[in-house]
Amino acid sequence: IEAHDVRTRQAGKASFIDFHLVVPGEMSVDQAHEICDRIEAALKAFDKESLITIHVEPEDKAKHSGIVVL
C-alpha cells in the first residue's frame, strides 16, 4: 500500500536501505514475504552490495505518511 520511514546511509562501500512497508492486514506472511523479495531484488539491481531491511506493517497499524506503492 505504501512505504514510509525510508532511510539510507553509507558506511564505506556498504549501502544500507531500510523502510516500513504497509500491506493489507489480511495478507498472509508468505504473500508479504514474496513482495519483500521482489522489492529487494529490484533494489539490488541498482546496487548488488546494498543491505536492505524491510519492516512489514499491517494497514491498520501503520501511520500512513509515506510513499504510495502501486
Strand content: 35-45%
Give the overall shape. globular
Mean pLDDT: 89
The count of helical stretches stands at 1
Strand order of the largest sheet: 3-2-1-4
Reading the helices and strands in chain order gives: EEHEE
The total count of strands amounts to 4
Specify Rg, calculated over alpha carbons: 13 Å
- Alpha-carbon distance between the two ends: 7 Å
Q: Structural class, from helix and strand content?
A: alpha+beta
Uncertain residue ranges: none
The major pleated sheet works out as: 4 strands, mixed
Structural overview:
The chain is of the alpha+beta class and 70 residues long. The chain is built from one helix and four strands; from the N terminus they run ββαββ. Strands 3-2-1-4 form a four-stranded mixed beta sheet, with helices on one face. The longest helix has 16 residues. The mean pLDDT is 89.
List the helices and strands and how they pair.
Elements: E1 2-11, E2 14-23, H1 29-44, E3 51-58, E4 67-68
Parallel strand pairs: 2-3
Antiparallel strand pairs: 1-2, 1-4
Give a quick set of tags describing it.
single chain, 70 residues, alpha+beta, 4 strands, 23% helix, 43% strand
Brief summary:
With about 70 residues, this protein is α+β, with helices and mostly antiparallel strands. It has one helix at about 30-45, and strands spanning about 1-10, 15-25, 50-60, 65-70.
